[in-house]
TrEMBL record:
Molecular function per GO: carbohydrate transmembrane transporter activity; maltose binding
Topology versus the membrane: Lipid-anchor
Subcellular localization(s) per the UniProt record: Cell membrane
Family annotation (CDD domains): PBP2_Maltose_binding_like
Species of origin: Paenibacillus jilunlii
One GO cellular component term noted in the UniProt record for this chain: ATP-binding cassette (ABC) transporter complex, substrate-binding subunit-containing
Identification of the protein by name: Maltodextrin-binding protein
Gene Ontology biological process terms in this record: maltodextrin transmembrane transport; maltose transport
Keywords: Cell membrane, Lipoprotein, Membrane, Signal, Sugar transport, Transport
Length: 444
C-alpha cells in the first residue's frame, strides 16, 4: 500500500484501497479461536527468551502447538502476502490466512476486534498510527528480534517502528516522494528549485494548461520540504515532543519563500490540483515535472516509457530537501493466542529476502540495509532515486497528536499559495491551532 495514499486517508491525502469484509473467525478454525482472548497474550516464554541474552534461545523460538495465523494486508500487496504465507507454512507448518484491510484502517479495527479475539494476529500499519495502538496496549513489543531488527534496518525505519522508547514494529518498506520528470522536455534532472523555476519560465503557459511542475501544493505531506529543509520541524525530540513545534520558526519561514516563488511557474489555485488531474497532465506531457511517490511509478512508466526520469527532490536554499517518509510495519496483536507464531511471521515477512521480494512484486523501497545495497535496488534507476531520497527523509511522528496537525497546516498552505498570506502569520495561526487541539481545546 502506498504511504502517501494512506496518509491522505489519515489527513486528507487521497488513497483508494478496497477493504474486504473481515471474517468473523479469527484464524479460520471454525470459530474455535473466536472464543475471545479477553486479555493480552501471555508472552512470558517469548519475553524470557528475549531477556536471556541467549542468541540460541532467540533462534530456537518455535510456534505454539496447533498455531494458525490471520494476517491483515492491503489489497495491492496481497500477492506478496500470499507468497509469504505459503513460504511460512512450508517452513513452520503454521497455516496462514490473509484478509484485505486497508492499513490506515487496521488500528481502528484492531481496537474493536482485538479484545474479542476476532482481529488478525499480525497487522500491517503505517507507522504514524503506531502511537495510538501502542498507547492503547493493542500491540506486543518486538522483543524477540529487537537487536536483529535494529541492526538490519535503517535508523529512520527503527525510529518509525518505535514508541515510548520501545520497539514494536517489524519494518518492511519505506515510502517517500521524489521528482518525476519527462526527459523529452527536461533535458537534465534539476538539482535545485532555482533550476526548476528557470525551466518553468520557459515552459509554463497557463492558457495552454502547460506547467513546468505540479504537486499537491495544499497538502502538508508534499509541502514538508519547504518547511524542514531549512530548519523547520514538526515535533521536537525526533517527533516525540508535542509541545515543541517548529513549523513557524525562522528556518520554516525561510523555506516557505521558495514555496512562494514557485507560484510564478504554477499559477493554479491549490484546490484545482488533485492527484488525478496531475497524473493526467504529466502523462500527456502537459506537466514536465511531478513531485509524488512510487505509487505512480507503474502508470508513469507505461505512459512515458524511456522518457521517464526520477530524481531526488531538488535542493531548497542550498540545502538537501527533507521529505516526509512513512514506514510500513508489521506488528503483533496483543490479544493473539499465538504470540510466538505471530512474531515469527512478522520477522519472516520483513527480512532482506522478503523485502526484495516485495520490491520485485510491488515496487516498494526496502528498509533493510543490505537490501538497499542489492543490485536489484541500486540497478533500478527509478527505485534507487526514491531510496536515495528516503535516506534524507524524516519519518512522520507516530505520537497520537500527529492527527491534530493535518487540518491546520493544510489550511495554512492554501492561504499562503492562494491568498498571498504572510507565511509567518499563516504558520503562527496553524501552530496555535495545533497546540489548542493537543491540549483538548477547540482550535480557533
Amino acid at each position: 500500500m502506498e504511504l502517501k495514499k494512506l496518509m491522505v486517508l489519515t489527513a486528507a491525502f487521497s488513497m483508494a484501497v478496497s477493504i474486504t469484509a473481515c471474517s468473523s473467525n479469527n484464524n479460520g478454525n471454525n470459530g474455535e479461536n473466536a472464543a475471545a482472548t479477553t486479555a493480552p497474550a501471555d508472552n512470558a516464554t517469548a519475553t524470557n527468551a528475549a531477556n536471556s541474552g541467549d542468541a540460541a534461545a532467540v533462534g530456537d523460538i518455535k510456534p505454539e502447538e496447533g498455531a494458525s495465523l490471520l494476517v491483515w494486508e492491503s489489497k495491492e500487496e496481497r500477492p506478496f502476502a500470499e507468497e509469504m504465507a505459503k513460504e511460512f507454512t512450508a517452513k513452520y507448518n503454521v497455516p496462514v490466512k490473509i484478509e484485505e484491510v486497508a492499513p490506515p484502517d487496521q488500528v481502528g479495527k484492531l481496537t474493536q476486534d482485538g479484545p474479542s479475539g476476532l482481529a488478525a494476529d499480525v497487522v500491517l500499519i503505517p507507522h504514524d498510527n503506531l502511537g495510538k495502538a501502542a498507547s492503547a496496549s493493542l500491540l506486543l513489543p518486538n522483543d524477540i528480534f529487537t537487536e536483529q531488527t535494529k541492526a538490519e534496518n535503517t535508523e529512520a525505519s527503527i525510529v518509525g517502528s518505535s514508541y515510548g522508547g520501545e520497539l514494536y514494529g517489524y519494518p518492511r518498506a519505506a515510502e517517500t516522494y521524489a521528482l518525476y520528470y519527462n526527459k523529452s522536455l527536461v533535458k537534465e534532472a534539476p538539482k535545485t528549485f532555482d533550476d526548476v523555476i528557470a525551466f518553468g519560465k520557459t515552459f509554463t503557459d497557463k492558457a495552454k494548461n502547460k506547467y513546468g511542475i505540479m504537486w499537491e501544493v495544499g497538502n502538508m505531506y508534499f509541502g514538508y520540504p519547504f518547511i524542514a529543509s531549512t530548519g523547520g520541524y514538526l515535533f521536537g525530540k525526533d517527533g516525540t515532543d508535542k509541545d515543541d513545534i517548529g513549523l513557524n520558526n525562522e528556518g520554516a519561514v525561510e523555506g516557505l519563500k521558495t514555496f512562494v516563488k514557485l507560484k510564478e511557474i504554477l499559477p493554479v489555485k491549490s484546490g484545482d490540483i488533485s492527484a488525478d488531474i496531475k497524473r493526467s497532465l504529466f502523462s500527456s506531457g502537459d506537466v514536465a515535472m511531478d513531485m509524488t511517490g512510487p505509487w505512480e511509478l507503474a502508470a508513469y512508466k507505461q505512459a512515458l516509457g524511456d522518457k521517464l526520469g526520477v530524481t531526488p527532490v531538488p535542493t531548497i536554499d542550498g540545502k538537501k530537501a527533507i521529505t516526509f517518509s512513512g514506514i510500513k510495519i508489521f506488528a503483533v496483536n496483543a490479544y493473539t493466542q499465538y504470540p510466538n507464531a505471530a512474531k515469527l511471521y512478522a520477522h519472516f515477512a520483513s527480512t532482506k529476502e522478503a523485502q526484495l521480494k516485495l520490491n520485485k512484486i510491488i515496487g516498494s523501497i526496502p528498509t533493510n540495509n543490505e537490501a538497499l545495497k542489492d543490485p536489484q535496488i541500486t540497478g533500478d534507476p527509478y527505485i534507487s532515486a526514491f531510496a536515495e531520497q528516503a535516506t534524507n527523509s524524516q519519518p512522520m511522528p507516530s505520537i497520537p497528536e500527529m492527527g491534530n496537525v493535518w487540518s491546520p497546516v493544510n489550511a495554512a498552505l492554501p492561504e499562503i499559495w492562494d491568498n498571498n498570506a504572510d507565511p509567518k502569520a499563516a504558520m503562527d495561526k496553524a501552530v496555535q491551532q495545533i497546540k489548542d487541539l493537543n491540549n483538548g481545546a477547540t482550535a480557533k
